[in-house]
Amino acid sequence: MEEIPTGIAVSKDSKKLYVALNLSNRVAEMDAENGRVLRMWHAGVAPYEVVLADDKLYVSSWGGREPDTESLIGPAGRGMLVRVDPVRHIASEGSVSVISLTAKASEGTQRADKEILTGLHASALALSPNGRYLAVANAGSDTISVIDGRTDKVVETIWARQNPADLFGAQPDALAFDKSGKTLFVCNATQNAVAVVDFAPGKSQLVGLIPTGWFPAAIGFDPKRQLLCVANLKGFTPGRLNKRTGQPEYNSMQWHGSLSLIPVPSKRQLAAYTKTTLDNMRYPLLAQAKLSARIGEPAVPVPERVGEPSLLKHVIYIIKENRTYDQVLGDITQANGEPSLCTFGERFTPNQHKLVREFVLLDNTYCSGSRSSDGHQWTDSAMATEYLEKSFAGFPRSYPAGGDILTEDALAYSPAGFIWDDALAHGKTIRDYGEFSQAHRAWKDPTRKGKPGFFDVYHEFTNGTDNVAIWSEPSIESLRPYINTNTVGWDLEVQDVFRAAQFIKEWKQFEAKGAAPELSIIWLPNDHTGGTTAGAPAPGAEVADNDLAFGQIVEAVSHGRFWKDTCIFAIEDDPQSGWDHVSGYRTTAYVVSPYTKRHQVINTQYNTTSLLRTVELILGLPPMNQMDATATAMFDCFTNVADLTPFSAAANNIPLDQTNPAVKKISNPILRKDAKTSAGLKLDKADQCPEDTLNRILWHAMKGPHEPYPEWAVQMVEDN
What is the CATH number of domain 309-433+492-518+530-703? Predict the structure, then answer.
């Protein structure tokens, strides 16, 4: 059986290894010399780290106890299961297994002696220098559990947050004691900080925060040098200097990481470090987010405080796929674009250009995610969990991109929940069109072999025949009552205009009834494109399809009865390592409503969490976690005076059924090679083809084979 070894411990005599086997929920005792497995024990779900304490093993498990017949279960990657909560279907336990090494060996996998429940996402372990106490980092609960080794019971729970009343968002994921055992250092991953804890079980206290690099995930203490060594999962370390600019190259797919070497600070220095860390976190905004609604406040489009009245009652949230700003809007000279980098300009995207001219043009907005696995987590929950961030080396357990039941993973979801959980918990109505759903496509005639392809679906849609069945089912069980099953999310064989038609059809039904969902979520993925495979839709046609679908949705809503109090937001889930002269994370985003400012360029810096924060304020929802709570809301995009002028969609300039030429008809060797390469790309599932390969194919297809690929266009920009 294929395995994922994670934590490891070495016996005192160095003759044995104890290894957490993350995929099979087991722990192995191995001969250090020849690797032979000596004994095996059951652990919890997704065991993470192993600590040896005299004659006992302690093993943390991200997913808590293995499910039993009474458990409510959800996916945990690679066919594994995990206990989930009954409302949101998110992983609901963390645990530590206790294994006695003195027990007589027996055949087969043995049971652990004890399972100790901790907080969510139990991960890193640290044994106090005297061997008595075991600290457990509960990344999903923002706590550290302290286990007394004499009783194997939790005797204390320490908050990793600066204030226990704060929202979720510290994600402690690594631990180290100093030599005395009186200080515990905790990596707070989401806060880019090390928390310093005065350790005294029963009265331990967080006393300060030290700023680190991006997403600290491992820590060691050097007693001789009084030095903290912190490994940061992400970082701005360049892979190389660009020959053209002399600047370090940097894009959204360069995950180099970094190492922070930090002398243990004095009390005075720790106080200064704490202030710096809190400033970096925009900490005062957490307090502002908790302020109560003021009585008598006039209604505005986006209230300052949750619960204050909004002029808007309905939000439509559109999630698109994988374009940067310059790729689409770089040809607009009134904003910060680079025309030479624009591959899908106005000819291909007339509706998006028309929208930003009639409403607001945002030229300083960024994706928070870098690819679909974290992109859809950010777009829907305003954060990525440490479990997900630690999977970036190759996603060995799962790839939770929102569109495949088989790759979904309840451990990857934020313990604070998704935007739809927030809405439902506060009495709002929702409808989902494809997001976190499994797409299905089949011939209605069961005797026909194979699946209908892109043009079968296209002709079905345009000609009105009845040969193809298209439907979806939820990837997360909590969405089942709210999903429109007549449309799909990720499936590049289905046109976005089909998705738009399904939404518009149901929206008109809502109009006839006089009631529409307060939150609608729509996935329009086809601007991802599929390269230049012979006979497949051309990249420009797929982008045009996405653009037309977007325009049709806005047209239908703006000409209907709910236009007066509806706002449409749209953003890409991630930039897919694309080129942009400002940042590889910069993307297109849209804000469309009667209260959106008209004909203006907005330079305010926003990101994915800004859209979510604005949605929350409109609908009266509290923020989900520290990331959306401290986000910049999009106040600058709105005015208090409505302009009810509707939007009329522009016709597509590119035929939606335009195809790539046959390989034998391509004379240029670069384009011919690209066509052959495209044919081998795996596009049936998200992000299964190399991003750089697809981007170069798209560049050649849109700019020509002799235009140099703009490697210079994605680089690290120094702060001013």
Answer: 3.40.720.10
